[in-house]
Amino acid sequence: MKFRAGDEVEKVGQTMQVTETLSQGLKREFKVVLPATDLATRLDSQLSEIQAKARINGFRPGKVPVAHLKRLYGRSIMAEVVQEAVNEAHRKIVEDNALRPASQPKIDFPGEKDELEKAFEAKADFAFTVALEVLPKIEVGSFEGIEIERLVAEVNDAEVDEVLKRLADQSRTYSPKEGEGVAAQKGDKATIDFIGKIDGEAFEGGAGEGIDLVLGSGSFIPGFEEQLEGLGVGESRTVSVTFPEDYSAEALAGKAATFEVTLKGLAAPGEVNIDDELAKGFGLEDLEKLKESIKANIARDYAAASRRKWKRELLDALDKKYSFELPEGLVTQEFDAVWRRVEAEQSQSGRSFEDEGTTEEAARADYRTIAERRVRLGLLLADIGDAAGVKVADEEVSQALFERARSFPGQEKLIWEYYQKNPAALAEIRAPLYEEKVIDHILSLIKVNDKTVSKEDLLAIEDDENEIERKDSEKAEDAALA
């Protein structure tokens, strides 16, 4: 039976009384009263169970006076009684009103301290309130009118050959260069020690010992490798470079630096052959199979880049199409999580809102909008998936967890056990799998226009998307479901 504001109290369990006091939008509040007589009954019942099992010095088994047990355990038992009553009230409120809670309820004990003490002694009624938010009812309807463009890039032979050459270079053997007058040149593998400084001060991550570097590979900062050419083994040289403006470590981006480099060893590159033997080195039977594998991998990368683009387009369309009231608690929770990451990134980078050309107030407003979008899309996708019967098999979760554990070499068992013992953490593995399945379901119901583009066009679009993600990573929707 549904509780309504102003109704006479309804009975829950034995004598617990529940009255709905608020029904406004997605917010619900109930007043719960557990009469003193019921408290006493529950307390006595618990004490009787303990009496039958209690073993206390000075008393025969099963003969410990209830009054003595009450002095010893009464308060702790009453705490359990109260907790049980709270859980029971919440459960019955949800079941009898057919509610879909958006989050855990807020329990409030508004009485004075003296009143609470009397209730704990079963001398007065125990009253508390249960406040909660419910999930909105979403009218999904059809997806008519939603149309997206799916970019398709074909893999050509030149791309496969480029990867083959790179694999061959990686498999190249090197032989030591020895003798008088031997100097480093492009293509050699140099073994170096170095110490980097900015304005004369060493910086974190700027030093290394015994580092192998193939000159001309472009592995280090632009201009670094070229300045090592002509250096002999045992010699040192000061290399001057400037970190790129888009360098991954923001504290170093655009900064001029010097490196004191000592050449410890030098090796000349051997010849490489792109043949069946190269393929066998990668576990494939011949060169043709290696080419097929490379082509399939490139195609998967292109498909993934295309998916990221059209998925964002689809989510934008869904966000524009649907509007419904959002549970304030979920939005606040999402915003708080986003804001903590923003603050952590600022602390790590040393940048401020002013450096980004904004203010904290404006940034909070922007991220609040992002939080609302993520909650809206998360609830919408969950409802669509539920209506469509979308499921994620345990085997799929296990496979994804296995892949996650593999990304932590040497700690695979610890990672696996952590997720297995923490349902909430395991849900974080399941959620994106569920989301992708829902996205695929929606894709099958909307109009999709395939457009063939070049690799350059596809990746240029992908670079633009990555730049958006870099500047405002919280706009990503890949983890919209929590």
UniProtKB/TrEMBL annotation:
<comment type="similarity">
    <text>Belongs to the FKBP-type PPIase family. Tig subfamily.</text>
</comment>
<dbReference type="InterPro" id="IPR005215">
    <property type="entry name" value="Trig_fac"/>
</dbReference>
<keyword id="KW-0132">Cell division</keyword>
<dbReference type="Pfam" id="PF00254">
    <property type="entry name" value="FKBP_C"/>
</dbReference>
<protein>
    <recommendedName>
        <fullName>Trigger factor</fullName>
        <ecNumber>5.2.1.8</ecNumber>
    </recommendedName>
</protein>
<dbReference type="GO" id="GO:0005737">
    <property type="term" value="C:cytoplasm"/>
</dbReference>
<dbReference type="InterPro" id="IPR008881">
    <property type="entry name" value="Trigger_fac_ribosome-bd_bac"/>
</dbReference>
<keyword id="KW-0131">Cell cycle</keyword>
<dbReference type="InterPro" id="IPR046357">
    <property type="entry name" value="PPIase_dom_sf"/>
</dbReference>
<dbReference type="GO" id="GO:0051301">
    <property type="term" value="P:cell division"/>
</dbReference>
<keyword id="KW-0697">Rotamase</keyword>
<dbReference type="InterPro" id="IPR027304">
    <property type="entry name" value="Trigger_fact/SurA_dom_sf"/>
</dbReference>
<dbReference type="GO" id="GO:0044183">
    <property type="term" value="F:protein folding chaperone"/>
</dbReference>
<dbReference type="GO" id="GO:0043335">
    <property type="term" value="P:protein unfolding"/>
</dbReference>
<dbReference type="GO" id="GO:0003755">
    <property type="term" value="F:peptidyl-prolyl cis-trans isomerase activity"/>
</dbReference>
<dbReference type="InterPro" id="IPR036611">
    <property type="entry name" value="Trigger_fac_ribosome-bd_sf"/>
</dbReference>
<keyword id="KW-0963">Cytoplasm</keyword>
<dbReference type="Pfam" id="PF05697">
    <property type="entry name" value="Trigger_N"/>
</dbReference>
<dbReference type="InterPro" id="IPR008880">
    <property type="entry name" value="Trigger_fac_C"/>
</dbReference>
<keyword id="KW-0143">Chaperone</keyword>
<feature type="domain" description="PPIase FKBP-type">
    <location>
        <begin position="187"/>
        <end position="267"/>
    </location>
</feature>
<dbReference type="Pfam" id="PF05698">
    <property type="entry name" value="Trigger_C"/>
</dbReference>
<dbReference type="InterPro" id="IPR037041">
    <property type="entry name" value="Trigger_fac_C_sf"/>
</dbReference>
<comment type="function">
    <text>Involved in protein export. Acts as a chaperone by maintaining the newly synthesized protein in an open conformation. Functions as a peptidyl-prolyl cis-trans isomerase.</text>
</comment>
<dbReference type="GO" id="GO:0051083">
    <property type="term" value="P:'de novo' cotranslational protein folding"/>
</dbReference>
<dbReference type="GO" id="GO:0015031">
    <property type="term" value="P:protein transport"/>
</dbReference>
<keyword id="KW-0413">Isomerase</keyword>
<dbReference type="InterPro" id="IPR001179">
    <property type="entry name" value="PPIase_FKBP_dom"/>
</dbReference>
<dbReference type="GO" id="GO:0043022">
    <property type="term" value="F:ribosome binding"/>
</dbReference>
